[in-house]
Amino acid sequence: MSRTRVKICGITRIEDAMAAAQAGADAIGFVFDLKSPRHVAADQAHAMARQLPPFVTVVGLFVNAAPDMIESVLSRVPLDLLQFHGNETPQQCRRYHRPYVKAIHMQSGVDLTEKARLYADAEGLLLDTQVADVAGGSGQAFDWSLVPAGLAKPIILAGGLTPENVAAAIQKVHPFAVDVSSGVELAKGIKDAAKISAFIEAVRNA
Predict the structure, then answer these.
(1) How does pLDDT run across 146-169, given as a tens digit for each residue?
(2) How far apart are CA 102 and CA 77, in angstroms?
């Protein structure tokens, strides 16, 4: 089995970006949603992205953002992958001609097979916890048994993951990647380098 990839999301400080890269993260995420406590401006993200070492994927997270806002970010920040975390349609996701993943907010009754068909050109589906009025970073896990085996798209598992539970999550879901934000924080938007290292070590040992 191939190893499980790791994304550290909600990066707001260069020291956290570097800590994630040095610990072996495959990707880091910048949140471009003004409602999020982890929001960063394009200039901040640009300054952090240009200091990252090679082969660390830079992901931009958007929540029902206006096209001109996304285009503005794309013109200033070297994003490798777009993450759409709202109610974006497949047409809205693909209009930027960039690789993207689509977040699916998990609850009973969500048909992931249909979502995989609907977002057929997505690089993967990111499964997060459904929490009212919160797009992501809630710190709450969902029922991992809702994820069926054999989906046509790579799965990125998010929602309430921590260094303590990520191994169990991987053994249950067998995702392509895991995505963590609040589970490795000291405060919202402020990461803990020791927790990042512990999380990645737990993933490697799973």
Answers:
(1) 999 889 899 999 999 999 999 999
(2) 20
Do the Cβ atoms of 6 and 200 come closer than 8 Å? Answer: yes
What distance in Å separates the CA atoms of residue 9 and residue 6, rounded to the nearest whole number? 10
**More confident: 134 or 67:** 67
CB neighbour list of residue 119: distance below 8 Å, 6 or more residues apart: 90, 93, 102, 125, 153
Q: Which residues are catalytic?
A: 9, 128
Tokens of 58: 């830079």
For residue 30, which amino acid is it? F
The answer to whether 4 touches 177, Cβ cutoff 8 Å, is yes
> How many domains does the structure of the chain reveal?
1
Domain of 106, CATH number, reads 3.20.20.70
Cα–Cα distance, 60 to 57 (Å, whole number)? 10
Segments forming the whole domain that contains residue 183 = 5-205
pLDDT tens-digit series, residues 113-144: 999 999 999 999 999 987 655 555 556 788 89
